[in-house]
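REVIEWER CHECKLIST
Item 1: Sequence provided? yes
Item 2: Single chain? yes
Item 3: Sequence as submitted:
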Amino acid sequence: MNTYKYIRHILLLALLFSVAIATAQTHTIKGIVHELESSQRIPGVKVKNLRTAEETLTDREGQFHIEGQINDYLTLTQSGYEVDTAFIYQEGIKRIYLVRDEKAIVIDEIVVSRLTDSRLVYEIAKAKQQGQVSEASQHRGGLRLSPSRLFGKQGKLARQNLDLLLREQNDRRVDRLFSKQLIIGIVPLDDAELALFREQFRPTQEFMETASPEDIRAYILESYSKFKSNNK
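Item 4: Structure as written out by the authors:
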């Protein structure tokens, strides 16, 4: 093989390798859009990948397919509903729940777990505002204690909601670091076991952000041993 043919051969292989990598990183994001309170599927929702600017609409069953990859952001827009954003941090069918405009939602564990990240941030800010026990005085200046906010039902509920919302937000941050891919790369767990393992042995956010890869591996192995012992 002469030099020209050899170089052309190398360039062709490099090109094919680059295409293979790009293809491997890109996949089809599949999802179903529901209304939060009724769980009914919503047709005609515009779904847009902010990275690629590609758009699609949900079908009559509220389902959509759009090209994307891990760490992409999708915006979801539909008349009569709050515009929301979904962060894609793992593979699988995404169930996304939209909230109607100007509608208060009843906060509970199930509802909170359905909120997208941007909606969760919004509800946290709202709960903080509604649960404040002090307010600015328009006449005397400074802050004054508000008995209605401190002892009132709405204020108490808002503070309870805030605790629940903040816990969910923290769990999501940890789960993105304590990922399925990380865990099954170290210990053998099926899907059902993996969900239970992550719930039972979810570490703190501080640990996941400061621990070395060796420390995280040791934590997973030790937790796996306890998990198997507890579930014999």
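Item 5: Key structural point noted by reviewer: The chain has a mean pLDDT of 81.
Item 6: Recommendation: ____
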